[in-house]
Amino acid sequence: MTHIPPAEPQEESLGALVAAASDHISTLVRAEIELAKAEFRFDAKRVGMAAGLFGAAAFMAHLCLILASFTIAHALVAAGLWTWAAFLIVTVLYLLVAGLLVFIGIRRLKGLTGMKRTLRSLKTIKSGEHDPALDVAPITPAQAGGHRDPVRPGQ
């Protein structure tokens, strides 16, 4: 990146001013893109984890319904329940387990913040105002989301 040293206002040519403005704009655009990438990477990991939980819930529900439903239902029939009542009890039980897994997956997704800093920065640029909160160094991917509480199982 070339940096043109500032000169006295009356000595700067129009070309030098345009070059400096172009340099500042390209630096700003690069910084905004890096910020958006860092925030997106962090949120994408959480979305991936939540999607994995939903997939695990569906897989477990499928296996349980196929493999264990008949065993439990027939055990209930052997204990003296009517066949239809035994199968109904097993179905309700597995629906409750699947609902619990979906609830856990939804809780994982609630922690996503979107790209708040990027959106705030773009709104500030659009309005032409100066936001002192944006005068910090751009965040790195390792720093993205570091201010958030870690997600623990069961949250």
TrEMBL record:
Matches recorded under InterPro entries: Phage_holin_3_6
Biased composition range(s): Basic and acidic residues: 146-155
Pfam families reported in the protein's UniProt record: Phage_holin_3_6
Residues spanning the membrane: 47-76, 82-106
Keywords: Membrane, Transmembrane, Transmembrane helix
Highest taxon in the source lineage: Bacteria
Signal peptide: none
Region (Disordered): 132-155
Protein name stated in the entry: Phage holin family protein
Source organism of the structure: Streptosporangium oxazolinicum
Upper classification of the organism: Bacteria, Bacillati, Actinomycetota, Actinomycetes, Streptosporangiales
